[in-house]
Design brief:
two-stranded antiparallel ribbon; globular; 6 helices
Length: 101
C-alpha cells in the first residue's frame, strides 16, 4: 500500500521545507505544524491543512479555520483525505482540539 501523500505533494505548491517556492513564498505552516503530526496519516499538518492558519491555496493567503473552512470542504485534496482515511479519518473538531482551538 502506498504511503498517503501530504497536501504539498499533491498540490505541488513548493512550500514545504526545501521546496521550490519556499524561499519566495515562505514555508507553509501546514508543513511545519507539529501538533497535528500523523493526523490522517500525514506529516505535520499535511493531511489536515484545512485547520492550519496561514496556508496559501490557489495563490492566496488563507486565514484562520473559520475563514477558510467553507472553501476547504470543496477542495479535492480535502475530499481525497476523507476518502483515503475512511473510518480512520480524524474529524476536524478533534484536530482543532489538538491545536487548542
Amino acid at each position: 500500500m502506498e504511503k498517503p501523500k501530504n497536501c504539498w505533494e499533491i498540490l505541488n505548491c513548493g512550500r514545504e521545507p526545501g521546496g521550490a517556492r519556499a524561499a519566495e513564498l515562505g514555508v507553509c505552516p501546514a508543513a511545519t505544524e507539529r501538533r497535528v503530526d500523523r493526523i490522517n496519516s500525514g506529516r505535520n499538518g499535511g493531511r489536515c491543512c484545512w485547520v492550519v492558519t496561514g496556508t496559501l491555496c490557489g495563490g492566496r493567503a488563507q486565514g484562520a479555520f473559520l475563514q477558510k473552512m467553507r472553501s476547504c470542504t470543496h477542495c479535492p485534496f480535502f475530499r481525497r483525505v476523507r476518502r483515503e482515511e475512511g473510518a480512520n479519518y480524524t474529524h476536524t473538531a478533534e484536530v482543532l482540539a489538538r491545536l487548542g482551538l
